Recover the amino acids of this structure.
């Protein structure tokens, strides 16, 4: 009944699953590869030769081409229309700006391709398999980094890997201390210190195969949302997933993960089903509150904290002109940790509204799917509050949109099975 309430001409309709032309192992390898490719390139950079930003882009391109090859025979009409609308929007904005920025195209490519891949080939069982394997790898790699750091950096010198790509800190000029081998956020500076288990991990923030502690915390938060949404009393698998997420959040000293975990738990156990659609208002409410607070109530000085980042985002949103809101800003500014300013300036407010509306019109089936959508939207709302581009990082974004696509696949499969059952009953 809930899925029917969301049905509309704009929503994807139930469709038979695609032919088994691509094996599940290929899909598994593609999604897992989207999480592991940075670690593989870092290993090459450390033991073989320097990896440039161009090589990273090339590897990402091969992942996207792999997705397209798997999907070459299945183009749902509604998704084809959305792809066309996205391309027209981005090309039109490029014309208005007077130049082409490839970053928004790449961001939307991740969303579309991995959602598409999940809808055609995904399932809850496949997502659980991906989570189980990636969780074990993340925990083991994290333990290796924690317990044998000197050996770890001989194979994964993350500081030089990112320095080779951006040029920032090349030659050690941007290091906090001499011979630094981990990324700058791989340690909590003196005076701030760790929040989670400082007597166990010291100032070290573990990154595991994600190479950055922020990415590890984001991944753990997503997996926790999936596990909480699907857990039912008596199911041990999701309890193990949740325990692994807690360990990874502790590894990374992810304050974001710690805060969002509490909100996810409250959503799971305190929010009734009838109120889950209210989460569709979350990002717009957050952006409005941030804007009002920054313009009318903030009178202090900026600090690099959660409140400080929100305040700075509010200031920039308050300065947006109509042209900026439409996404026609030229030249595009670097909004750093201001996610709301980033998405509005890159895609335009109208497209953001349409995309969010489309997400909430997806005819997902069952309470676990509805819970996950609400929790994932809460995750997106909060990550846009403190980070500019983390929502579109392939290491975690590919998994997020594959999850969404897989849930839609389950809804379509369930609808098809139900229709077949009704037809059989009507024509015995």
């Amino acid at each position: 009944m809930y899925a029917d309430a969301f049905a509309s001409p704009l929503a994807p309709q139930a469709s038979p699953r695609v032919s088994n032309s691509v094996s599940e192992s290929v899909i598994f390898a593609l999604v897992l590869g989207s999480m592991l490719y940075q670690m593989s390139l870092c290993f090459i950079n450390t033991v073989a030769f320097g990896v440039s930003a161009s090589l990273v882009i090339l590897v990402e391109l091969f992942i996207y081409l792999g997705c397209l090859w798997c999907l070459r025979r299945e183009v749902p009409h509604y998704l084809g229309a959305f792809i066309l609308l996205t391309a027209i929007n981005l090309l039109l904005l490029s014309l208005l700006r007077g130049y082409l920025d490839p970053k928004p195209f790449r961001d939307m490519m991740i969303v579309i391709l991995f959602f598409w891949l999940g809808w055609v080939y995904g399932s809850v069982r496949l997502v659980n398999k991906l989570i189980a394997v990636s969780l074990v790898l993340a925990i083991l790699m994290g333990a290796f980094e924690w317990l044998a750091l000197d050996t770890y950096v001989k194979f994964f010198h993350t500081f030089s890997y990112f320095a080779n790509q951006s040029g920032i800190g090349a030659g050690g000029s941007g290091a906090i201390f001499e011979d630094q081998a981990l990324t700058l956020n791989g340690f909590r500076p003196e005076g701030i210190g760790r929040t989670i288990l400082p007597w166990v991990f010291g100032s070290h923030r573990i990154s595991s195969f994600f190479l950055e502690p922020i990415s590890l915390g984001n991944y753990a938060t997503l997996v926790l949302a999936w596990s909480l949404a699907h857990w039912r009393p008596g199911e041990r698998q999701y309890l193990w997933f949740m325990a692994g997420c807690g360990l990874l959040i502790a590894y990374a000293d992810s304050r974001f993960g710690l805060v969002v975990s509490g909100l996810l738990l409250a959503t799971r156990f305190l929010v009734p089903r009838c109120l889950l659609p209210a989460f569709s208002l979350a990002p717009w409410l957050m952006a409005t509150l941030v804007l009002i607070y920054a313009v009318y109530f903030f009178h202090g000085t900026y600090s690099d904290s959660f409140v400080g980042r929100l305040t700075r985002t509010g200031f920039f949103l308050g300065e947006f002109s109509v042209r900026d809101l439409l996404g026609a800003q030229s030249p595009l500014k670097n909004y750093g940790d201001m996610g709301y300013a980033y998405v509005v300036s890159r895609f335009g407010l109208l497209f953001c509204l349409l995309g969010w509306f489309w997400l909430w019109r997806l005819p997902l089936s069952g309470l676990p799917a509805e819970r996950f959508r609400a929790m994932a939207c809460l995750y997106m709302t909060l990550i846009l509050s403190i980070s500019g581009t983390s929502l579109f990082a392939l290491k975690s974004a590919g998994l997020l949109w594959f999850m969404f696509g897989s849930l839609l696949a389950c809804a379509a499969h369930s609808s098809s099975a139900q229709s077949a059952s009704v037809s059989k009953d009507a024509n015995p």
Observations:
- The longest helix spans residues 394-426.
